[in-house]
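The instructor's notes for this session suggest beginning with a concrete chain rather than abstract definitions. Hand out the sequence below and ask the class to guess, before any prediction is shown, which regions might be ordered.
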Amino acid sequence: MSRPSLPLSGFRAFEAAARHLSFARAADELCVTPAAISHQVRTLEDYLGVALFRRSGRRVLLTEAGQSCCPTCGAAST
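After discussion, reveal the predicted structure:
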């Protein structure tokens, strides 16, 4: 059985959300809904097998894995 293709939209959503530390602001930037950002990031996390964000209500923070995927974004969250 072949592995599903790499979810490129998830990378774009992840990068924007990581820079802003906000799915809502990432959604505004990419002209989609916050739910779409959440879905795209979740699909990427499922593909990679690791959580990239810690979700707490409407707030999101990068996990260690998320920081290592986006080093310049991780510096902004500390």
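Then share the key points. The longest strand covers residues 53-56. The chain has a mean pLDDT of 88.
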